[in-house]
Amino acid sequence: MLKNKIKLSVILAVRNESNSITSCINSICQQQFNHTFEILLIDGLSEDGTIEVAELAFKNNNFTFFKILKNDLKHVANGLNVGIENAKGEFLCRVDGRFELSKNYFQSCYDCLTNKKCDVIGGKLISKSKNFTSIILANVLSSKYGVGWGNFRTMTKGSELIELDTVTGVFGRAIIFKEFLYDTYFVRSQDEELNFRFRKKGLKVCLNTSISITYEIRSSLKTIIFQYFQYGYW
Questions:
Q1: Residue 217 belongs to some domain of the structure
Q2: How many CA atoms lie within 13 A of 76 on its CB side?
Q3: I want to staple 170 with a disulfide (CB 3.0 to 4.6 A). Which of 29, 40, 96, 109 is the partner?
Q4: What is the tens place of the pLDDT at every residue in 153-165?
Q5: Residue at 1 is within a domain
């Protein structure tokens, strides 16, 4: 980080992510980004020590541009809005507590946005597993037969920008403050709904397959079924 003015605000809305939050924060703090960025961690009343683990991760990375906020309603969409309303950066990036970003993630997204190639930009999603069950689930979630064609989980080749929905999107703060906050009605699929509204207003939403987010999937079939039932419902 080379400049004092905050260029990017990272919005990290979490709840009970003590097992994965360290890896997530490490990947954010170690970004190869030529500008100053802040991290806003919005905690949904975690009960597993997430805040304490996160504070230790910030300390171990000698990272001081962070703020911890509270999300009393617990739902992710509300936490993201709390972060957006407290953000100081010119650009915003929404990150999940189970994500690990490739080291050039911020810089690549920033370059695309400042060069006016698109209005919203993000990377491909790669599933990571820890046990036999999650290995099988990771393969399913990385397959076109499991999640469909033209999906941010399966677009793996090339380095061109593709007009496609993305998670962990980076966008201008001015854009989202005009009329785009996350819809708190949605318990899941907040990104898809927001991308839909972006496109409806004529904004260009793109996926850059040269950058990636590694996602630690849930380790049991029961939890993944419940998660995807919620995705389908919402």
A1: yes
A2: 15
A3: 109
A4: 445 555 578 888 7
A5: no
Domain assignment present for residue 85? The answer is yes
- Predicted local confidence at residue 155, as pLDDT: 52
Q: Which residues of the chain have pLDDT under 70?
A: 1-4, 129-159, 177-178, 187-188, 218-234
Each residue's pLDDT tens digit, 14-54 = 999 999 999 999 999 999 999 999 999 999 999 999 999 99
Residue 183: per-residue pLDDT: 85
Does the CA dihedral 88-122-74-189 come out positive or negative?
positive
SS3 71: coil
- Model pLDDT, residue 40: 99
Cα 95 from Cα 174, distance rounded (Å):
19
Contact 93, 170 (CB under 8 A): yes
Domain containing 148 equals: 6-233
| Residue 232 φ/ψ, nearest 5 degrees | -65, -40
CATH code for the domain of 91 = 3.90.550.10
What tokens does 208 get?
């850059």
Q: Which of 31, 38, 52 is nearest to 6 (CA)?
A: 38
Query: What's the confidence (pLDDT) of residue 140?
Result: 54
- The domain total for the chain is 1
Whether residue 24 is contained in a domain is answered as yes
Show Cβ contacts of residue 72 under 8 Å, excluding neighbours closer than 6 positions: 45
Angstrom distance (rounded) from CA 19 to CA 6: 29
